[in-house]
Amino acid sequence: VSTITVTVASQNYEDVTVSVVITLTDKITVEEKADAKVAVAGNLVYGQSLAELEFVDNIVFVEAGKDVEVPGVLSWDMEGNDVLDVGSHEVNWRFVPNDTARYKELTGMLTITVEKAPIVADRVQITLDTIERPYPNMPLPGTVDVASDLRYSISISWDPADEKAGYNTVYTAKAYLTAEPNYTFAEDISLEDWEVVSNTGAVLVVKRTFEATDKACIVAIDSFGCWELEKLYENTEDIIALLPDTILVYTEIEPDG
Question: pLDDT per residue over 30-39, tens digit each?
């Protein structure tokens, strides 16, 4: 409590002295109600902003030490980027009473969880479709180029483990897909033409067995180097009767060579 004395002077009247008593009071402190404290309705998925994480409906603020409810607005108090990485985070909240002249603002901290964003089947199929059925002399790739927005990488192993595809050989490709840290492969992922071997979320392993590569074709030419036969045969029995006396046989050429 303070008292201020004020003198009012006037040209035609006597001075008047007035005493003004000023009483200063603190704003009322606000607190969370014991059984209705600040909490959230769930978790965030990576890529969502903090603003998308809703508070539960039954949060109540009261005058400190009393059961007098204080209405106001509760919001997140965070500067800068509000898209958080996967994991647990301590974030600040702020409660602003409707009557800011009477009540103090209240701030607090809450631990929230950000879950990994799922990678679904149609996103994976885009890149697996680029793995071709091997053909003779085709280099067997060990990796696949993946667009950066797909959020995973691919490495491949082949069985048999040849650098180039051979003739009349059945190849099985096993693809190892590794998700980026903030992403996970969906638990129920299923891919057309590919069998899921294992799925840890971080690493998805799938395999595919292709039809056998083409057989080597036999083409006969005579000793003058002229084409004697126009037809390509897949086995020697079919061609023996048509062979000239002197031939050269090429077994590692393309069928259209």
Answer: 999 999 999 9
